[in-house]
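EI: anyone free to look at a 108-residue chain?
SC: sure, send it
EI:
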Amino acid sequence: MGSYGLQHSTQSTNLADILERVLDKGIVIAGDISISLVGVELLSIKVRLLIASVDKAAEMGINWWQNDPQLTTRAQNLEQENKLLSERLARLEQRLAPPIEVDADTGS
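SC: here you go
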C-alpha cells in the first residue's frame, strides 16, 4: 500500500500578504438586490463596495473622507468658518438692502 498522507504547499500566503495585495491593487464588489411581489418591484438595493488603500483610492479620485466633517478636524473647521461667513454675509446684505418704502395712502 502506498502512503496517503496530506501534502502541504511549500508556498504559503498569510493574511498580511493578501491584504497588502488587495489594498495595493484595490477590489470592487458590486451587486443588486431586488424584491418583487406579483411582478411589482417593491425594493431595489444597489450595493457597491471598494476595498483599497487610501493612496490607491486617492489615485482613483476617491477622497470623500478628506472633506467629511465627521472624520477630519480640518473639515470641521472649514464647516464652522463657512457658517460664520454665511451669517456675516447675510448681515451685510441686510444692512445694504434698500429700505422698504411704505406708501402713506395705502399703508403698504
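EI: The radius of gyration is 30 Å.
SC: 👍
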